[in-house]
């Protein structure tokens, strides 16, 4: 499709020069495909309601569900209500719900059913006319990735992707976006043959998190950190996304995908890009993307890959105080499944700023704790004018960006232990979101859904970022595919021995968050 110019700001309720005013979406309909799924119930429907409750959706907003249940509009509205009551963030208010539910519609059918798509088209036309959604339609594909092609073809066939006049049509795509670089390129070509790239919103919900956006504030609004932000002072960077839960009930999605494809290709490489990028010319989407793309283009695997990566699969062990089974005893996983539930790899960013600084990425299920953090670990002081015994307990300074669950920033440095002798030990200086701000952070999906309706693409990776991320990951996946099965690790620990060895070989160690 021909590329259009980046859309200008179109929301008449907002003065584009005053960024403090709330950003309210314009008239629009959000169509969710796969509305009976887990994501729609837990995240999407509650996020729509929370936006309405915060006054960020206009009266002329509509929510359309598409699924193969035989539901009337009212049945679907009841399903939405239950999902909202169970999972909304801002508290259920009947008056908000009553207004929102007037715009809820349901279309029943499978993705292969032409008639159902024609029914969807006429439902949207009715909403445009009766509710004033003005031909502005966002299609959220909350569906299995193998269904992307059929739904995209239906949208093309019916003309539902075509914009006319001032109206817009957008598509929202969930991960996984391909399973390697080749399939990501194919999928991008397919999506871009139906929707122009600026109308494609690829969800990486990590980018919707306040703590992730705070990386830009921390780096570019302060003078304090910038002089330290390079190989002159930083020894290495560790980016960790650890979960304590296992995969009970999620075999269908996870088996054959694994931790590297599920999390490192998207969330962790996006975090790496935000940490490593240069200052953007502005915070416009294009300037942000330019800087992130430069980082991804410069990112390489540290060789040899077999010694600089690790993968594992959880065995039986503990989750908190509960005994739990290993992956191969989880329902839906075969006894010979080679899907990794832990992945770690060492990368380098081949630029003047980062030369010689390894970036260690790791993610896993059934680890010791649920935590996501980015730790910049500093070099040791070049000279310590103390006896060795005085600094025996002094580690390396670290700046830790706590992404979740205890959102904030920690600075770790050495301090004198009170007493008559000089003894230096590590202490933490903490900033916590909960303590510093009275407002609670919106859910990532609230922010991202609103941005879709506003046409603000800053927090959505573009096709080039996705393809470059796969280019970084593909050699690691190929190495693993050629080298037998993942190592096992006991549930409740911090991954396989090989992950520790990968670090200790360079005289470093993983943090135990
Ligand atoms: N769940 C999460 O936390 C999560 C997180 C990140 C990304 N994602 C991604 O989000 C997407 C949705 O995930 P999910 O967990 O919600 O999946 P899910 O629970 O498996 O739901 C899939 C949905 O697609 C529908 N569907 C499948 N084939 C269909 C067909 N031929 N015709 C009509 N409907 C069909 C299902 O309808 P039926 O109910 O009729 O089967 C269901 O509503 C996936 O791409 C996933 O990778 C999910």
Write a structural description:
With 513 residues, the chain is an alpha/beta fold. 33% of the residues lie in helices and 21% in strands. It has 14 helices and 17 strands. It has helices at 38-53, 73-87, 94-101, 114-130, 148-157, 181-194, 210-220, 251-254, 258-276, 285-298, 433-436, 444-454, 463-481, 497-504, and strands at 28-33, 61-67, 104-108, 137-141, 169-173, 200-202, 234-242, 299-301, 309-319, 322-324, 342-349, 358-364, 371-378, 398-404, 408-416, 424-432, 487-491. Strands 7, 8, 9, 10, 11, 12, 13, 14, 15, 16 and 17 form an eleven-stranded mixed β-sheet that branches. Strands 3-2-1-4-5-6 form a six-stranded parallel β-sheet, sandwiched between helices. α1 (38-53) packs across α12 (444-454), α6 (181-194) runs antiparallel to α13 (463-481) and α9 (258-276) crosses α13. The longest helix is centred in the middle third of the chain and has 19 residues, at 258-276. The two termini are 47 Å apart. Mean pLDDT is 94; it is low at 1-15. Bound molecules: NADP nicotinamide-adenine-dinucleotide phosphate. NADP nicotinamide-adenine-dinucleotide phosphate (NAP) is lined by residues 34-40, 67-68, 110-111, 142-145, 147, 174-176, 253. NADP nicotinamide-adenine-dinucleotide phosphate (NAP) binds at residues 34-40, 67-68, 110-111, 142-145, 147, 174-176, 253.
